[in-house]
Every structure is written in C-alpha cells, then in structure tokens.
Amino acid sequence: MTDIVIAGFGTVGQGFAEVLAHTSPGLREQFGPLRLVGAFDSRSYAYDTNGLDPVALLESKAAGRVGKRDIPGTSRELLDEMDYDILVEVTPTDIGDGGSGMGHILSALGAGRHVITCNKGPLSLRFQELEGLATRRGAMLRFEGSVGGAMPIIHVAKDIMAGEDITSIKGILNGTCNFILHRMGNEGLPFQQALREAQQLGYAEADPTYDIEGVDSACKVAILSNAIFGRDVTVHDVMRVGISSVTDEAIALAREQGQVLRLIGEVGQSRLEVAPRLVPIGHPLAIGGTLNIAQIDAKFSGPITVAGRGAGRMETASAILSDLMTILRAQ
Fold first, then answer.
1. Reduced 3-state DSSP string for the chain
2. 272-280 vs 259-268, strand pairing mode
3. Threshold 0.90, pTM exceeds
4. Is 120 an annotated catalytic residue?
5. What pLDDT was estimated at residue 270?
6. Residue 252 CB neighbour total at 10 angstroms
7. Rounded Cα distance, 236 and 26, in Å
8. Range 157-185 burial, b when 16+ CB lie within 10 A, else e
9. How far from the centroid of its chain's Cα atoms is residue 73's Cα?
10. What is the mean pLDDT of the chain?
11. Hey, what domains does the chain have and what are their CATH numbers?
C-alpha cells in the first residue's frame, strides 16, 4: 500500500487525481494499491487514512473547494500532521522565496518521504539543498514535469543517456511563447494580437508576464543546469530576454533570410541563457505551435532531439505518473 498526498488541487493536481482514479489493475498488481489519503488547495483540505475517492474530490473541487474543512494555520503545519508515503507537490510557482511549495517539499523530505513536484519555484531557487536533504533522509525527489510537461527531457538526459558527456541542452521550453512567435511569423499578427489569441485559447494566463518575459523558461534552464550539469544556480543567475520586445520588422526580416525567431533556452557547463534567436526554417527548433522541444548535444551520440507537450492537465499528470513509477520500482 502506497499512500499519497496531493498539495495543490489546481489543473495539474486535478489531472493527477483523475489518473489515480483510473489506474490499471496491472499497475495495482505490480506495486500494490495506490491510495490517495490527503489533498488540499489554498483554502480547504480532505484527509482520511483509510483513503479518499479521487472522483469525489474532483466533484467537490468543481463546486469550489477540494475539502469540507478549512486549513488550520498554515498548509505546511497541516502537512506535518499527515501520514503518507509520497507527496505530489503542484502548487503555483513562486520565484521570490519558493512560496508554500518550498515549505511542503522541505516538510516531506525532512520526514524521509518521497516527493514528486512540478513546482519550478523551489527547484530553481534551492535545488542542491533539496537534493541534499533527500539524500540524507533516504528519500527521492523527482521532478520530470517541472521542465517540459510530457516531454521527458530529464529522464532522457539523466537515465537513458547515463554515462554520456552531455555538453549542452538547448530548446523551446515555453509553449506560450512559441505559439505567439509562430502566429506572428506565419500569419503576420502583431505581438499584442497574437498574445490575446493565446489567452483566448487558454495557452497564456491573464497575467502572461512569467511566459513572455522568459521567466518560466529561465526557471527550467536553472533546473536543467542543476540536475544535469551538477551546478548550483538559481533562476536569477540566468541571462534572460523575453519576447515582448520582438517587433514585426524583426519577424519579417528573419523570414526573408529563411529563418524564424524562437525563444531558446540554453544550458551548458558555462552557459545559462534565455533569449529570442534566429533558427533556420527546417531545423528541429523551428517547430511551431505549443510544443516544447529540446536538443541534447553529447560527446558520443551527437544531437538527440526530444519533443512533447510542455503543459496541460493530463500531459503533466503523465509526467507525475512516470516519476511515481520510478519511485515505486526503487522500493
């Protein structure tokens, strides 16, 4: 029996609850029952050591609250009192101090419990500290969904390419920016019109600052630098230029030269950067739409390209499920 708590019950938390509601019999036979014992959002919580019905939680959240009880004190204090094996931490990203997610992860790892997170804030601010705590407490910290949603960049780089000498990783790490630049280039839309379209389609938030100013991509670059290259950097160490200053003239000039503009994040042993770059039409990184794509350059294998949907309810939930399987296999 593996007991799970979900911290944060927004889009991704609900997606993972839906995944738990439909786990296959084969999965349960291999690893034993997966039991959701706790879940909380910013205001309310549900907790039952005998297990909760994920479908009932989804129905409750659709009415406004994941649980009937208000959170007493802080959510970290609440989590400290819960008994569980694995924390799925999917609260909103905060690059100031890591937000409540930082406290949740510290609480779980400090108690020797495994953590799966998509929260870029803690990972892009205090990665090595969290990894060190996990190691000392005999816990696992998994975070595939934090960088590329359903794009398995971390699994490929750390596990499949284990032993390789990876020299750099560069790619499109934010689907919102890619959609906007693609629409500007292909349809000739002005930046503000392309942004409004992205918001109407649900690709961009009402406040799109983290996306269009490159903050989201910079968080992912910092995480990749720490996780793959063993560095100790934060999001604030990343050189960052967003796309809000990209002009129609720059888009047109690129097209005349057989190129497109894309927001590229790049990390290497000495490089940490997010900026709009010219990419030749036909190159893998010239991809359009909302997909994420990354190119891993390595000494022996050469460039390897990984692509996938970088965000979304079920796409990110699939990355959490992958991390969960890794933890269960290791036990």
1. CEEEEEECCCHHHHHHHHHHHCCCHHHHHHHCCEEEEEEECCCEEEECCCCCCHHHHHHHHHCCCCCCEECCCCHHHHHHCCCCCEEEECCCCCCCCCHHHHHHHHHHHHCCCEEEECCHHHHHHCHHHHHHHHHHHCCCEECCHHHHCCCCHHHHHHHHCCCCCEEEEEEECCHHHHHHHHHHHHHCCCHHHHHHHHHHCCCCCCCCHHHHCCHHHHHHHHHHHHHHHCCCCCHHHCEECCCCCCCHHHHHHHHHCCEEEEEEEEEECCCEEEEEEEEECCCHHHCCCCEEEEEEEECCCCCEEEEEECCCHHHHHHHHHHHHHHHHHHC
2. antiparallel
3. yes
4. no
5. 82
6. 13
7. 44
8. beeebeeeebebbbbbbbbbbbbbbbbbb
9. 28
10. 94
11. 2-149+313-330 (3.40.50.720), 155-308 (3.30.360.10)
The pair of structure tokens assigned to 125 is 């601010």
Tokens standing for residue 256: 């005349």
In the predicted model, what is the mean pLDDT of residues 22-37?
A: 83
Q: Is 28 a residue whose pLDDT tops 80?
A: no
Distance separating alpha carbons of residues 173 and 290, to the nearest angstrom = 10
Query: Looking at 68, 158, 220, 299, which residue is catalytic?
Result: 220
